[in-house]
């Protein structure tokens, strides 16, 4: 069960470690890029159409701008933080046991601040134009919008799991940013005319703070978090195999050591520390003998760990 792998994390490793702070900075910058481009495109379209952005052309414009901006935002931060750019994605990764609670909180703070700063920059650079907060369209009920946000965010986080987190993703990992951008663009085309299609609490939070508009704002938090959490549970539970393939020359703890080249070397699993020839190594969960560590030009084959303290976010 995914819930059994949820971890809080250690303060000194998740909140004050330079790697964690760099990852948070990457999330801040990526969210700023995404919100600035996405929200800015809506403000520009509104200016060009005399304040009438709620048209089919405006919807298509918003979908394209958000898809392209998210593609870039995820790409530039993928190798640093995992490229979440969304509290709902971070929450879904946490529920699936792919990021610690403390690292997730750090990401949330960075994402929300990035959104606020993006909206403040937009307001200043446009000469005081209003950053539009997300709102329900005429005739759209609050519970209708709530369900919309759950379903759309489920699709988004499910896509993230399939293309970025799943260890069996293979070549799909290379197209993860564009796939994530595409699903967001498609969902905006589906739900943008009804509730704005947020799918991202940070995207909703920045404009709400700067314009100080909080009507039905809870919908844009509760819906995405529920949808993201459900996607994490479903994908982890049904589609990710957690069986661990032992190395073909490894024996269980307590087994008799094998004799190689006249010397005895232990073939044991290391559950708490990962060593390779006496050195800590984050990728391997085995204690391997030095003679075998040099085989195949130094490549040691074993199943990857799902999460460890040295991993920045989740796999991409």
TrEMBL record:
The chain crosses the membrane at residues 20-45, 57-76, 116-136, 142-163, 175-198, 218-238. It is a multi-pass membrane protein. GO terms for cellular component: plant-type vacuole membrane. Coiled coil: none annotated. This is Tonoplast intrinsic protein. It comes from the Eukaryota. One of its GO terms (molecular function) is water channel activity. Pfam families: MIP. SUPFAM superfamilies: Aquaporin-like. Keywords: Membrane, Repeat, Transmembrane, Transmembrane helix, Transport. Belongs to the MIP/aquaporin (TC 1.A.8) family. TIP (TC 1.A.8.10) subfamily. It is found in: Membrane.
């Amino acid at each position: 069960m995914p819930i059994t792998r949820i971890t809080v994390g250690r303060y000194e490793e998740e909140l004050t470690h330079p790697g964690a702070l760099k990852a948070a900075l990457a999330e801040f910058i990526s969210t700023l890029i995404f919100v600035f481009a996405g929200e800015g495109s809506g403000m520009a379209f509104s200016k060009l159409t005399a304040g009438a952005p709620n048209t089919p052309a405006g919807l298509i414009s918003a979908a394209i701008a958000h898809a392209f901006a998210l593609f870039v935002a995820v790409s530039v931060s993928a190798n640093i933080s995992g490229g979440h750019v969304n509290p709902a994605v971070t929450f879904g990764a946490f529920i699936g046991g792919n990021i610690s609670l403390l690292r997730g909180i750090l990401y949330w703070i960075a994402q929300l601040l990035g959104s606020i700063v993006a909206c403040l920059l937009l307001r200043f650079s446009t000469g005081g134009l209003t950053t539009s907060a997300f709102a329900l369209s005429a005739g759209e009920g609050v519970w209708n919008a709530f369900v919309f946000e759950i379903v759309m965010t489920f699709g988004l986080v499910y896509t993230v799991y399939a293309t970025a987190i799943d260890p069996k993703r293979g070549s799909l990992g290379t197209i993860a940013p564009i796939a994530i951008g595409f699903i967001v663009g498609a969902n905006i085309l589906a739900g943008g005319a009804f509730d704005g299609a947020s799918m991202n609490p940070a995207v909703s939070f920045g404009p709400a703070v700067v314009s100080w508009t909080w009507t039905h704002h809870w919908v844009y938090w509760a819906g995405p978090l529920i949808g993201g959490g459900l996607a994490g549970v479903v994908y982890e539970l049904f589609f990710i195999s957690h069986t661990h393939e032992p190395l073909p020359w490894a024996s269980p703890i307590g087994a008799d050591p094998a004799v190689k080249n006249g010397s005895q070397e232990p073939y044991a699993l290391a559950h708490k520390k990962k060593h390779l020839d006496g050195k800590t190594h984050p990728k391997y969960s085995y204690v391997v003998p030095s003679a075998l560590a040099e085989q195949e030009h130094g490549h040691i084959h074993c199943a990857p760990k799902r999460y460890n303290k040295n991993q920045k976010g989740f796999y991409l």
